[in-house]
Amino acid sequence: MAWSTGADRRPGAFLRHVRLADDAPTTGYPFALPVVTGLARSGGLPLGPGVTFLVRENGSGKSTLMEAIALAAGLNPEGGSQNFAFATRATESALGDELVLSWSGRKPSTRFFLRAESYYNVATEIERLDRETPLLQAYGGTSPHERSHGESFVDLVTHRFGPRGLYLLDEPEAALSVRGCLAVLARLAELVDQGCQVLVATHSPILLALPGAAIHEIGDDGAIEPVAYDDALPVRLTRDFLAGPDRFLRHLLPDGPA
Ligand SMILES: Nc1ncnc2c1ncn2[C@@H]1O[C@H](COP(=O)(O)OP(=O)(O)OP(=O)(O)O)[C@@H](O)[C@H]1O
Ligand SMILES: [Mg+2]
Question: What residue ranges carry the coiled-coil annotation (predicted)?
């Protein structure tokens, strides 16, 4: 991995730009996904320091893109740090090999990919590695398998994540209560102050409220554009639902609300 000499000295500015290689395939999964054709059309996704959120409906390609960025950044596609090399089942797409990442002159002190759907396997690998060289303290002192799903995520971001790190999080809210989301939001703010860069795919209107974060939304045509908090899809839909659940239930349920 090449670290550019044109140094960007802003804290938390490690990964500056993600684009598709000029000679990348254009057909089949994942290259025909709108988010991937959109990435090719736009010339790529610029990333600033601090936290960048990626939002859009289920199936829009967030995980495909996050996994590919993780792979291109030298991380395990199933999750973990740069030292995790296990594979439970090779399901990653070929996109990681076709992404070109541009880095600033700053090198992150550590990197970690949290993938909610496969954290169970990461936890098993943490236990295995701990038997070789003790490392559970770095995760809060208890195996993630002996914590609840949400507790293990909060342990991870609280204890394992540290200053000047690069973190990729795919739906961290999957395990979290509202209070858990608020705890992670507060921890993200601390990590930004400590010079971290974090890319988060999320559906959580709570996490999206992090002050100073950039929110990028994948459009119908696959274009990835910045949006304001109030305009972000998870925020608009959740707000509309909470303002009048009956209006939604009338459409969703044959007999309407009781
Ligand atoms: N191995 C695969 N082969 C073919 N299509 C796939 C494969 N994996 C995922 N897809 C498709 O790619 C699309 C994008 O999936 P992806 O998991 O990236 O979406 P997502 O935005 O992360 O969704 P969610 O919000 O539900 O997590 C989906 O339509 C999915 O069905
Ligand atoms: Mg996903």
Answer: none
